[in-house]
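Example 3.2
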Amino acid sequence: MESKTKLFGHPIHPMLVVFPLGLLATAVVFDILYLSNGNLAFPTASFYMIAAGVIGGLLAAIFGFIDWLALPKNSRARFIGGWHGIGNVVIVVLFAISWLLRWDNRNFIPGIPALTLSLAGVGLALITGWIGGELVYRLGVGVDPGANVNAPSSLANRTPVPSDVKRPSHR
């Protein structure tokens, strides 16, 4: 099933998810670094990374939801995609609450509740990321129907060549 929202021939949702995943996971790493060495730059960076990650997660969710709506009703992909989306919304909520708990704190130092929510968010992201992989790599969601090892560039307006057809040699 091909994605409904594309940019330069590629689905937008997977392009966007790398930002919140990277930002939120790195925020947790920075919190751990702060706890290990007390450098106040780490919780400040973490605070702003969480804010950017939450915004990026909400933006990615819009495009994921559009693609989810295009999945056939009563299909395994729609069921799994629903859990993927719900899980990712929970992740964004966990990090948003963690961010709010840091708001009034001097130097944005995370307390135990903020850290717990962030760690839970990263743990859940490992699960929803795997589910997203299941959607793409097992169920073919978001994959171009002409995809194969010899397909032309997504920027080309050419018909894909099936993988079992040999291309002519240009010598």
